[in-house]
Amino acid sequence: MTSLAAWQREFLARLRSFIPIAEEGGVPGSVMIGQAVLESGWGRSGLARLGSALFGIKARDNWTGKVYSGTTKEFAGGRYVTIHGPNRLYPSRGEALADGSDPRTLFRAYQSVSDNLRDYIEFFQRNARYDPALRLFARTRDPRIFVVEIARAGYATAPDYAERLIALMEWLAPDLLPVPRLWTVRVNGSHLRGNSVRIDRGRVFVHVRSLAAALGLRVEYEPQTRTVSLHEEAVR
Q1: What SS3 state is found at 228?
Q2: Of 131, 147, 176, which marks where a domain is finished?
Q3: Which end of the chain offers a freer environment for a tag, N or C, measured as fewer CB atoms within 10 Å?
Q4: Average pLDDT of the chain to the nearest whole number
């Protein structure tokens, strides 16, 4: 973490103190850390500073607490759209709407970060669309799977949300991620290299060129038809 500034290391240390609370509620600690950094800009966003909110949870019509109306970006129609907000705190969602705020700019705000953390955990527990994420993490203990599932369930609109979040987790909290299992694949008595094989949720993916080389076949790619062919011809 030598590339982090002192204030970033302090923020990260604070987040790490929340790990037991998050994991007791079924949310991976590494995900909590990654989302707090990603959603709050290392705790320096207007939402974080004025609303004590680190996780960017939208304030829908069932939210009865304070709200923050801030400029945000949404991915819609194949592109990002900027939606402007006044970047201010309101006592309620109704008052923000009455003041002309766009509903898409409204985020849940809190009295303290501790209140935010409790609501963040309950947000996953109370929304049925996140049940698969909670169940799969409880079974596999793999935070990456949790991330893929919450992205699929619509936590954010960005199409690359899962990839960005996982990258942050692998950078900031690698000690909280499971060590990848090493698999050995034998083809005609020969072993494929370890990095030629990937296991994802029970499915086995093998690097085509490595497999072809082990079988003595030639690989042809046809971009127009998106076809990969293996030919019974010795590799020259």
Answers
A1: strand
A2: 176
A3: C
A4: 89
Name the nearest CA neighbour of 63 among 51, 46, 73: 51
Give the 3-state secondary structure percentages of the chain, helix then strand then coil, rounded to 5. 45, 20, 35
Instruction: Determine, yes or no, domain membership for 214.
Output: yes
pLDDT tens sequence across 131-169: 999 999 999 999 999 999 999 999 999 999 999 999 999
- The verdict on residue 108 lying in a domain is yes
Residues 6+ positions from 175 with CB-CB distance below 8 Å? none
As a whole number of angstroms, the distance between CA 68 and CA 92 comes to: 9
Measured in residues, the chain has a length of 236
> Which pLDDT tens digit goes with each residue over 165-221?
999 999 999 999 987 655 566 777 676 665 666 655 456 677 777 777 778 788 887
